[in-house]
Amino acid sequence: MTVYETEVPGVGKKFELEVGGGERLVVLIHHDGKREVYRRSDPDADSEKLFSVAGKQARQLGSIIEGAFFQPVETDEVQVPLGDAFIEWLDLHADSELAGKTLGETDLRQETGISVLAVQRGDHTHPNPDSAFELAGGDVLVTLGTREEQNSLEAMLGGSDTGDATDSDEGQDE
Amino acid sequence: MAVALYEIGIAITALAVAGSLVHRFGLSVIPAYIVIGVLVGPNYPTTLGDLSPVALGAVGDVSLQLVSNSDLVAGLAELGIVLLLFFLGLEFSVSQLLGDGRRIATIGVIDLALNFGIGLALGLAFGFGPVETLFLAGIVYISSSAVITKSIIDEGWVANPESGPILGTLVFEDIFIAIYLAVLSAVALGGGSLADAAVSVGTAFAFLGVLLAAAWYGTGVVERLFSTGSDELFLLRVLGVTTLVAGVALVMGVSEAVAAFFVGTAFSGTDHTERIEHVIAPSRDFFAAVFFFAIGLTTDVTLLADVALLLVVAVVVTTASKLLSGTASGRVYDLDPRRSLRVGLGMVPRGEFSLILATLAATAGGNAGTLGEVVPAFAVGYVLVMSIVGTLLIQNASAIERVRKLAVSPEAGS
Fold it and tell me: If you measure CA to CA, which chain B residue comes closest to A51?
């Protein structure tokens, strides 16, 4: 990857990164520490400003992008191999059809083939919940099943983007 | 002293109000600072009634002569010039010049030949003397780094290829203005005869040569001398040395602005650059604002009537010439016609440097005659128009691009 560096007198420095297909990211670092990031989709296009951040935030953003705080792991790889089956942590959203029902009523084992190993509610973990255990929105289900079974359960859990492994990182502060 | 403080208070408040007003419209603050200086200054308009087409009765007699053109304001304004040029030297990009020298030289010469040439032609056509003509040519030639840099950031052009030739041309203009100011001030301040002029040009270059050598070889010393943990002491040291060198230069009959430029370049090779941008830039902004304000104070707008024709012709012709030289520069950088046109539009604004020349002309001409009065009045009127026209051209570039497309291929637009 080629990086072009230019001085912008009175402003600071400009870096252009080729990101493939003629597209370039342009980072303008002001003397006062402000960073502006532009994207130019092809050589003929105009650069559009994506965002601008102050010095301190920029450095934090930089380390996040670099991976210093958190290395993303693909959802498909968060699994403990048990034959075809694996263990998954799944959020139960309030709008799910399962919220408010007991495990017995949901009949998850018959419907999806999934075994619920434990339910995390707040700080508390309920291991091996019985059929009378009532599910509620906000619960995290620890489940055992194949990819297919996990997917069919996810479809019943509500929420817009169910089972996104990075959900829990949202809103994480410094 | 009470009056002085009161007047400075009015001046700064007026600057703050005027600046905030134009900031809302995304326009350059420079014309606003000048206009507010004219309004509250000792020259016309002197009362509120002067501003209104209808009679205002008793309210019309309210005086607008709020700030006199005192030595204090003049001194602060002088610091504005020194700091503007100091930063020009500080930000002068030698690496850019060395890395892209051939192309920068090419577009610089195109820009110089066309625009300086037009300026000389204008001076001769309007019957100016040789010195006045030289001033006029400089005033219409030099683009405004301040206005242009701000505008191309606001429009996002800074991230586009057209910023290359725009900034490259500015670098060339910077070098030229340093040499030109040195020669011109030596000639203009040096007195009448050719021998006198030669002596003062010689003095100027000897002084600047010493300064340049100090800037070149003294990087290590500068680095050490200005290493201090305290921002306050750092500020005082930098302002102290810059102002002192500029002052000594002026006493010796050398342009204080050029001296400040070289002090700036002495700092540009050190690690202090970033810190100066942090610590000194606010001082520059303040003193530069006072400088523009002081320009307004000293301007007699009634003189503009005498140069109205020259002003109109100059505005039209030099807008066209910058468009032409800029577009040609874009072609040198292999830009497509659309981006090349933008380079032309981007170079149109004139500003602080034309006004520095106007101040020099006023001083050299003793505030009277063609050099001392007419040239400065022209420069102020010219900068007022060009800084606004230039900003508007950059802001409305996409509309202008469509017009250009229609002109090039009429059937494509229908």
Answer: B156
Selected residue of B96, B104, B158 to mutate for chain A interface (largest A Cβ count, 10 A): B158
| Positions of chain B with pLDDT under 70 | 1, 55-56, 190-193, 409-414
Would the CB atoms of A6 and B96 count as touching at under 8 Å? yes
State the virtual CA torsion across A144, A147, A153, A156 in degrees, nearest 10.
150
Distance (Å) from the alpha carbon of A5 to chain B's nearest alpha carbon: 10
For residue B214, the model assigns a pLDDT of 84
CB-closest option in B91, B278, B336 to A44: B336
Whose CA is closest to B171, among B113, B91, B242?
B91
Label residue A151 by pLDDT band (50, 70, 90).
confident
Kindly determine whether residue A8 and residue B167, on different chains, have CB atoms separated by under 8 Å: yes
Amino acid identity of residue B191, one-letter, is G
* Rounded average pLDDT over A46-55: 90
Looking at CA atoms only, how far is residue B245 from chain A in angstroms?
Answer: 22
3-state secondary structure string across B110-162: HHHHHHHHHHHHHHHHCCCCHHHHHHHHHHHHCCCHHHHHHHHHHCCHHHCCC
B278 vs A6, A11, A32: nearest CB = A32
Q: What is the ipTM of this complex?
A: 0.73
Q: Which residues pair with A3 in a beta bridge?
A: A17
**Cβ contact A32–B171 (<8 Å):** no
Tokens of A140: 């995290």
Q: Which residues of A touch B159 (CB under 8 A)?
A: 14, 16, 26, 28, 36, 38, 40, 47, 49
This prediction has a pTM of: 0.75
Say if the Cβ atoms of A31 and B281 lie within 8 Å: yes
B114 forms bridges with which residues in the sheet?
none
- Out of B149, B159, B170, whose CB is closest to A38? B159
Handedness of CA B330, B334, B335, B336 (dihedral sign): positive
Sequence ranges of the domains in chain B: 72-384
pLDDT of the residue at B183: 86
* CATH class assigned to A75-160: alpha beta
**Cα angle vertex A8, ends B379, B94, to 5°?**
90
Q: Which residues contact B413 (CB under 8 A, 6 or more apart)?
A: B402, B405, B406
Could you identify the residue written with the tokens 């203005």?
B177
pLDDT of residue B191: 61
In CATH terms, B72-384 corresponds, of 1.10.1040.10, 2.40.50.180, 1.20.1530.20, 1.20.1290.10, to 1.20.1530.20
Let me know: does A132 contact A88? Beta carbons within 8 Å: no
Q: How far apart are CA A138 and CA A136, in angstroms?
A: 6
Q: Is residue B391 less than 8 Å (CB to CB) from chain A?
A: no
For residue A172, is pLDDT > 60?
no
